[in-house]
What does this fold into?
Amino acid sequence: MIEAYLERASTYAGDIDNLFSVIFWIVVLWGGLAEIILFYFCFRFRKKEGVKGQYISGEEKHQKKWIAIPHYLVLVFDVFLIAGAISVWYNIKQRLPEPDLTVGVVAQQWAWTFIHPGADGVLHTEDDIKTIDKLHLIENTTYHFELESKDVLHSFSVPVFRLKQDIIPGRKITGWFKPIKKGEWDIQCTEICGIGHGLMPARVHITSAYDHQQWIVQNTPGSSGQAYASASN
Amino acid sequence: MSFWEKYVFSTDHKVIGLQYMFTGLFMAAIGGFFVYVFRMQLAFPGISVPGYGEVTPLAYNSLVTNHGTIMIFWFAMPVLIAAFGNILIPLMIGCDDMVFPRINRLSFQIFLLSAIILIASFFVPNGGFGGAWTSYPPLSANAEYNATPLGAPMWLIAVALEFVAFLLGGINFITTLMNARAPGMTMYRIPIVLWMIVIASILFMCSVGPLIAGAVMLLFDQTLGTSFYNPAGGGDPLLWQHLFWFFGHPEVYVVLLPAMGIVAEIMATMARKKLFGYKTILYSVIATGILSFVVWAHHQFIAGIDPRMANLFTVTTLLISVPIAELCFVYIATLYGGSITFNTPMLWALSFMVEFLIGGITGIFLGASGVDIFFHDTYFVVAHFHYTFVPIAIIGFYAGITYWFPKIFGKMLSDRLGKIHFWGTIIPFNFIFIPLFLLGAAGQHRRIWDFSNYSDLATPEFFNLRVIATVSLIVMISFQFVFLFNFIKSLRSKEKAPKNPWDANTLEWTADSPPPHGNWPELPEKVYRGPYEFSHPDRESDFWPQDEPGPDPDDPDYKSGYSPDSDIESSSTKA
It folds into this structure.
């Protein structure tokens, strides 16, 4: 359902969407049933002249079962929901697959600095490419990201990846994603971070390996004499 | 008695209750104005909002922060717990006042002081605090980051004082309910609304301690340069989040329970039905209360806590759906076999169920850690908790005030105006928040001053949804003037309300409307039965007041036809 509003650009976006759909139908079933019964009772038992209400304590066994049975069913559904939620969570947040590349993300009030590995494919070397507010990624490549903050809490959110992770000053938080679609989408900060919180949009650019190679060549510091890649890419 | 003694420095529980109520409503008006201003900015970025002017990013943050803070701490809590608790507890258990009337007065005075400090913080240089109602450090701890060197500590002091006020009030509620009940008002004969208010007070008392300690540490970080939450000085920003949400989640139930109690009273009375399983409700509420202490980290799934911890909190969070679902089932079952009158209080009570159910089930998405990765801090969350808090605070308040208005003020509200106000509030309410669910599902994140900066969110379709929400909000706010008009018109009307206009059973309906200081010339002598003996087959009348001498149908020795009021038609009404 979510894909109607938002494209899926990571391997696990589909997992989250599917879990959403499962929960959606479960809650529509339960919530819908409860609402229908509520409205039906309101209609069926509206006040009529000369008809007195019934006297039901709800304390007797044959009455309690009307609550007890749905209540156990809720518990059964809960077990399924918990299993689904935890398995999706485990895959995205707890498991850390071997990366092909690693990118650095540094958040500050109110901008993003993205650090890409250069031609050697290794982060934290001399040929790293730093960009402001633009993250360049290669399609079908498993990435680790390393989140750091210079000041307050921020949150790294890429809606098309269905990914979100808060960034805490003083810590380096590592996670992963694997883009599966070429294109350009929003990156948001989703943790309030001061006056400019609404003013730190960034973009993720996902390209083929070949295009990315071109981009690296054009932007490697030294080769083109610039410390920061031009924003035109 | 002079005006000052009677209305300002009174120790009468009803006057203190009304002081809380009117202060809460005044604050709600401020919170409502704030939401009008920032919703205008969201729908029409950059316009000069009528009645306010242009909204700067700094002002925007302060508006959303204080809207949340006010609506929860200065509207929901004072009105639902303090106002209804103060007014109802002594009247419903049959005593003349709270057991600590002066502490009660002190509680309100501290609360008033806290409200004044909060309002004053809007007018200091750089305005009120704008770091969200959750006030996460380091943003909240450091003026360099939040740009509100005075607003931030004032906000924090106001919140801490408000907690002190409610601690004092809560102690009073608990003690009064335990010690001042009329003879015969046994544990299972206490009206369910009082249980809910008192259990809420207990939850508050147990959860707020760590937060007050946390608030003092945050204040030290702000003003003395300590580093409790500052990683550079060896502190940990996550510590605050744990302290805050350890309180913050039980707090949801602290305001939910009184509202559910109010709804239960109204539903039983207007459906002429005994509550379906009084004990089931009571024990479900206690279970919910206990569980609510072990779910807090679902607010922090992606905050940087150890990812393994999320699994534990997913389990506890989804399990809390069991007692809450049970409560909803019990409420719906209460309607079965009733003889339902759809007057204004009942419409509010029923709409609470309808809307709160939506709020409840949408919470399941967020409690499931897997989906929360995407939904956390989006408008889906905003829509979800407004579908819980609007039923709790706004619907719960209107249900309560329309039901007890005759008792509190001695006049009747107009039912026709009440219904106009009801539909004018409920319909726009849904049109505000359904668009926000959709925007949230599309990835729109919270607390953003202007979505035009985000190309994926700046499409015309999304702006249409934002405009629908904002226009609906304005419609909803305008209809509140109908209530105001009805309120004033009824107060000025000459017609007096009868003692018991709804034919209810509980003790407050035996007092005069409005009850004098001391409530009854002579306190109720004895309570004979539970509060929900409606439509008993052995009686001609369809209610059975708690203080009317006679047998208790819940008594195991009770025999049909035992009642002095019993009549021949008992067999025909047993249908």
Notes: The radius of gyration of chain B is 24 Å. Residues 566-575 of chain B have pLDDT under 50 and may be disordered. The first strand of chain B starts at residue 48 and ends at 49.
